[in-house]
């Protein structure tokens, strides 16, 4: 039997790689990475998000790679109050939250926002497990 340990990387198909890199660097603190033959990615922790430019062929790829079709949940090291303060400073609207959710390892509190391609990005924290009411 196979036992999967963790996610190594995900792929986002994006309309504009530079705009996406700027957003994820500025708003979510990810590190831009260049690899291979001029490929781009965003690194965080022990993971990364590879970026595919919409309309450019990279094989193999998803069956229907489309900007705006992703729904990701990212875990913040710090409290959600700090996330909310930073999002406000970056003028990034919160679409929903804070709300109580159940994540992979238990109760968490989440906020939802959109990236430049309108992917749904959930940022959660396990450090405060009850959303303020």
TrEMBL record:
The keyword Oxidoreductase applies. The keyword Oxidoreductase applies. Coiled coil: none annotated. Residues 6-126 form the VOC domain. Keywords: Dioxygenase, Oxidoreductase. PROSITE patterns: VOC (PS51819). SUPFAM superfamilies: Glyoxalase/Bleomycin resistance protein/Dihydroxybiphenyl dioxygenase. InterPro entries: Glyas_Bleomycin-R_OHBP_Dase, Glyas_Fos-R_dOase_dom, GlyoxalaseI/FosfomycinResist, VOC_core. Gene3D superfamilies: 2,3-Dihydroxybiphenyl 1,2-Dioxygenase, domain 1. One of its GO terms (molecular function) is dioxygenase activity. This is Ring-cleaving dioxygenase. It comes from Polymorphospora rubra.
